Amino acid sequence: SIGVMLRSGRGSSLARSVLRSNTLRGTPSTSRFASQTSKPFIAYHERPRRSITLALTAYRPLSTSLQRCADIPADKIDKKHEKAVAGEELEPHPEEVSMASSVHQVFEEKGTPETEKEEDMLAGVYSDIKTIRETFALNEVPREAFFVGLAGVIPYLATSASTVYLAWDINHAAMDGHGFLLSGESAELLLHILEPLQIGYGAVIISFLGAIHWGLEWAKYGGEHGYRRYAYGVVAPAVAWPTLLLPVEYALIAQFTAFTFLYFADARACVRGWTPHWYMTYRFVLTFVVGASIVISLIGRGQIADKISRLPGPADRLKALRETQMEEIEKEERLRRARIVAADEEEEDDDDEEGEDDE
């Protein structure tokens, strides 16, 4: 059969003889065309030809392939190790088990890390709100100091709120001809009464903040530091009390600057260990309330700067006193000169009368 011939050597020799005979034998048309062609073509036609062999794939039965696969050695089972593992007891770890660890997603490869969750755009805002809440909670501050400190800022809040209301009432009276609860004149008088109260109270508080360091030095909290700590109690009142001589707006701005400067000084002292660790946060909250009150007062006064008269302050009073004293000195000088002139005239008159008597 054909299959037997292909598997034997006779089939391959037969195929080679057939191909060789077809190659060497040419047709008449081909020989005639070759004689009529040019010389280069003849040279190309006379080149030696390579023998073409028919590559036939050797037939390999399926049993041989299976036999080769069977010859590959398989992994040996270590029954002794498996028996030792089977005898071990599993240790429970309930804290590591959760709903997420016990569930395998359908469209997720096992062992792959979880996909990153989308970031919350408001996470930063929530974090800031939490920080502010924890800061203003003041949990570490003693309750007595906490309540007394809050009571100390009430006058500032009251004067600032009153300034804003009186400014609104003055504007209302200027536009409609009458105030909401008070007349324009009454609101202006009350505003002028509040001015020295707010500035004077601010000077007292600034002096008190400096005096705290004297007490800490006497108590030897954080060690003895001498003049460096006593300087806090000296500089604070030296800055606070001269503000009473300034106009209201300048006095409020100067006290705001003094409160801010003292806060940073106290924060530095807290870092050095001169004060309790909670004192810096405590001072920040109180200074924030006082500073906000001063800013509100300045805004309220700025709305009515051209609608109210300016009362004379301490500096104006000192200036007026000096001018009055100068006027009194000039008056006394004029009177003294007038008396001298009058005395000279009397002497001249007396001399004239004596001369006439001699004659």
Write the layout of secondary structure elements.
Elements: H1 2-7, H2 9-24, H3 28-36, H4 39-45, H5 62-70, H6 79-87, H7 123-137, H8 143-152, H9 154-176, H10 184-218, H11 227-240, H12 248-272, H13 279-302, H14 314-358
Helix pairs in contact: 9-10, 9-13, 10-11, 10-12, 11-12, 12-13
Structural class, judged by helices and strands? mainly alpha
Q: What proportion of the residues form beta strands (DSSP E)?
A: under 5%
SSE string, helix = H, strand = E?
HHHHHHHHHHHHHH
Distance between the termini: 199 Å
Low-confidence stretches: 1-12, 17-48, 50-57
| Helix percentage range | 55-70%
Mean pLDDT reading: 75
Polypeptide structure, described:
With 359 residues, the protein is mostly helical. 69% of the residues lie in helices and 0% in strands. It has 14 helices and no strands. Mean pLDDT is 75; it is low at 1-12, 17-48 and 50-57.
Q: Which terms summarize this structure?
A:
359 residues; mainly alpha; 14 helices; disordered N terminus
Brief overview:
The protein is mainly alpha-helical and 359 residues long.
